[in-house]
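It is worth pausing here to work through a concrete case rather than discussing structure prediction in the abstract. The textbook approach is simple: state the sequence, then state the predicted structure, then interpret. We follow exactly that order.
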Amino acid sequence: MELQEVLPGEIERRSMEIITEELGERGFDPKESPIIKRVIHTTADFDFAENLYFSPGAVEAAAQAIRNGAGIVTDTNMAMTGINKKVLAQFGGQAYCFMADEKIAQTAKEKGITRASASMDQAAALSGPLLFAIGNAPTALVRLCQLIEQGVLKPACVIGAPVGFVNVIESKKMLMEMDVPMIVAQGRKGGSAVAAAIVNAILYEMAASRLS
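Step two, the predicted structure:
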């Protein structure tokens, strides 16, 4: 087989065509379809066509918050790096991750909790509308749910996509009991790249709508 020289933009276009063809006639919601396809594009995993759960109006709620300059809080620097901050800035938003903050490390040590959990407490001090993109730590998602339940936080939307084997499914089920807009990668699968891909899919659709 002979490899071809293909430019990055062409690679993405062809990839999306292949994904669309392989998905066939699934009948996805038009607002959810770009997110599903971008996650599959990021992971090459078609299981996400079935695994991604969208609460009613979640995509619209996330988009409206972004239009209002929402901040996006992640649980890993990898997820924050993966978010297209240039497009986010067009709407007046900013991405946050507190995991590398020395104060967070100290707080986590003093309280005997994870830095991911302590990061959610720090996020509660932010002003304005907030989206949360959790792609790694179930402890972050659990703490976020606790803060929601206590009325300390009311996120515009929560992307729940921690990955792994310990408390991952349980933390996602906990989120799905909350009364907030959400997009959840059900089961064990997820990851920082998935969380960032979901955010980017929303951003790209919003940017495209601006241009049309």
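Step three, interpretation. Residues 83 and 196 are 5 Å apart (CA to CA). The chain has a mean pLDDT of 94.
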